[in-house]
Amino acid sequence: MPRVIPMKSMKEPKDISQELLLKYLSGTASEKENREVREWMSLAPENRDYIDHLQSLWANAQSYSLLDSIDLEENWQAVQSKLGKRTTYKKQLFWKIAATLVFFLTAAFLIKTFVYRPLEWQEFEASEQTTLTLPDGSLVALKAGSQLVYPTQFGDERRVKLKGEAFFEVEHNQETPFVVEADQTETRVLGTSFNLRTAAEFSSLELVLVEGKVSFTSPLEKVVLEPGQRVSLGAGGLLEKTTNTNPNFQAWKTGRLVFENTPMSKVFQDIANAYNTRFELSNEAFGNCTLTARYDQEGLENILRTLEILFNLSFEDKQGTYMVSGGSCQ
Amino acid sequence: MSNTQDAALQQRLAQGDESAFREVFDLYFKGLVLFATKYSVDKEAAEDLVQDVFVRLYEQKSKIQFHTSLKSFLFQSVRNRCIDYWRSHKVRERHHGEILLTTNPETLDSQELMLQTELEEKVFEAIRQLPEQCQLIFKMNRFEGKKNQEIADELNISKRTVETQISKALKRLREEVYPYLKAIIVLVCWWF
């Protein structure tokens, strides 16, 4: 490396012209001028240093050959390849991040669509007896005046909410249990048919299993029903499981009523339940009289007329409640 | 390189003008390498180091805050890298049990080195613009330290031709570089 004398220590000489110095440095000075400069140099060591310094600037041959040897294009290519490597890496990183994002977004979308799809509930209130087909193909016969709330699409379980009375024929599906919520109770089944009635003004909650197997849960207890068994909510909110002896539990749906030596108090209960009405006996003793009869979709009016004839009764409709007067056993 | 030119390039660079980057490279690369060698960095390392400065300039072109000018930014960056290079080099040398005698680059006056670099570039540019044979003779004389007779023998021309060519080259240099060199000397001396 050429020695560089810091310019800082230099003072512009006043006793020699710059022009002359430059001529000397560039080698264009005449003999006379060269002699003049050499004489000036010998006057003081500072002068000598000054010339040395200018000379190092002027005739730094090494610098020129260095400048000459730098291949600009080669270096440009080197910069481009250094930039290329970085951009390639950055691009790779970009695509990696992008792919990861796309993957997670897709996964999230699929999970949202097929697993955590929020249920859209619909409410059906039967003004007359109606049979609904649920999204899974299960059938629900709803009694007039009853209400069923169910989703448009079932998720990981088939849950519906019942108010009133309904007969369920549940499609068999091992994976997704069918659950009926009613009056703080849950009826859980896999595939079966049963009649469920929630508590109303004149009747209590009752579940009758026709076929299959259900588990019935109240806030306090849980019972498992076999076909032909029924469970009802007894006094004190305890569950009562018995064998179903009432052939008319489905009468509201089938319109078929069967009585065999049935006390009139029970007859009126079954008719009331089947036709959503209410009876009030003025003659308590008449409730013990028995009836043996079959009615097949006769309609409430006809049934009452035959009873009038059979037992010499009279019915008076008082705002949905029939006042029963008279009556004597056959 | 005037300040307004520098500022215009700086602006185009910040706006993502690709051609501006090439212009900056062509304009400053050689000078920056020369500048780096003044910090006792050899040519190959100097080129590598200046390349890295340009890579950084390209990547950060929209973010870099030029406190002074593009030129100062480049020279300052190269200086910093030279200091880093010197430090790591020094450590390596010590590892081999050798004693490094180079000056600590931090003690050098970067402003002075920058001016010197610019002047040398200017002279070099002027030489480059000489006619080909004239340039060759001048280089042989000045760079390679060959006597006029040696050059004449080598190029198979008369000694007189060599002398004429050299004086022609010097005349050209004087015309091109004089005003600049004079300005530098006056400027530097005026400062201190």
TrEMBL record, chain B:
Record has Transcription regulation as a keyword: yes
Keywords attached to this entry: DNA-directed RNA polymerase, Sigma factor, Transcription, Transcription regulation
InterPro entries, alphabetized: RNA_pol_sigma-70-like, RNA_pol_sigma-70_dom, RNA_pol_sigma70_bacteroid, RNA_pol_sigma70_r2, RNA_pol_sigma70_r4_t2, RNA_pol_sigma_r2, RNA_pol_sigma_r3/r4-like, Tscrpt_reg_LuxR_C
GO CC, alphabetical: DNA-directed RNA polymerase complex
Residue ranges occupied by any RNA polymerase sigma factor 70 region 4 type domain in the UniProt entry: 122-173
Domain called RNA polymerase sigma-70 region: residue spans: 32-90
Domain of life, per lineage: Bacteria
Family the entry assigns: Belongs to the sigma-70 factor family. ECF subfamily.
Protein name: DNA-directed RNA polymerase sigma-70 factor
Organism ancestry: Bacteria, Pseudomonadati, Bacteroidota, Cytophagia, Cytophagales
